[in-house]
Amino acid sequence: MTKLYPLTLKLINKKVLVVGAGKVALRKLQGLVGTGAEITVVSPEVLPEIEVLPDITIIQRHFQPSDTKNAHIIYAATDNQQVNDEVGRYIEHWQWFDNTALPEASNFFTPAVIREKGLIVSISTEARDPTRAKLIKQKITDFLLKSMKE
Q1: H or E stretch including 140?
Q2: Within a 13 Å sphere around the CA of 129, how many CA atoms are in the beta-carbon half?
Q3: Contacts within 8 Å (CB) and 24+ apart, 91-95
Q4: Can you tell me the distance from the alpha carbon of 131 to that of 3, in angstroms, rounded to the nearest whole number?
Q5: Which one of the record's GO molecular function terms can you name (predicted)?
Q6: N or C end of the chain: smaller count of CB under 10 Å?
Q7: Chain mean pLDDT for the chain
């Protein structure tokens, strides 16, 4: 894999599509809420935790190819690889796409993120080991909270 380049994006008024509404989608949505993005979730079934998130539009049905139209960022976050692959078939060259179950089909990855008192820290394992990223995130968070108290 070529070297990845980390960014911090301003998503105000950018269209974000999340296909799927399970645990993986919930994690993505929790990071997106509050960014000013126009977030749309498409899924026939939706976790209750997603239903109560602010500032998202939920379309409770199966994915349709037209759902990707005009979306800047698209997450295929279902537990069905066929659906995730189908979403990927409708991506335009200018769109950012993350097939959360198949990194090689993605053109970006969302890192683990820590937000503390004006500081943003991103942790990425280049989509190879999300569990490791989560552990590192917790250790860095613990360190930051301890050092900010001192």
Answers
A1: helix 130-149
A2: 6
A3: 92/68, 95/68, 95/71
A4: 21
A5: ferrochelatase activity
A6: C
A7: 94
**Predicted confidence (pLDDT) at residue 71 exceeds the cutoff of 90:** yes
DSSP, res 128: S
| Tokens 């500081």 belong to residue | 119
- pTM (two decimals): 0.90
pLDDT digits (tens, 9 = 90+) for 14-47: 999 999 999 999 999 999 999 999 999 999 999 9
Is residue 147 exposed (0-12), middle (13-18) or buried (19+ Cβ within 10 Å)? exposed
Kindly report the backbone phi and psi dihedral angles of residue 131, in degrees, each rounded to the nearest multiple of 5, phi listed first. Answer: -65, -40
CA distance 80 to 45: 13
E strands, the chain, where?
Answer: 15-19, 38-42, 56-59, 73-76, 96-99, 112-116, 119-123
**Token reading at 58:** 């939920």
Q: Give the span between the Cα atoms of 134 and 74, in whole angstroms.
A: 22
- φ, ψ of residue 120 to 5 degrees: the values are -120, 125
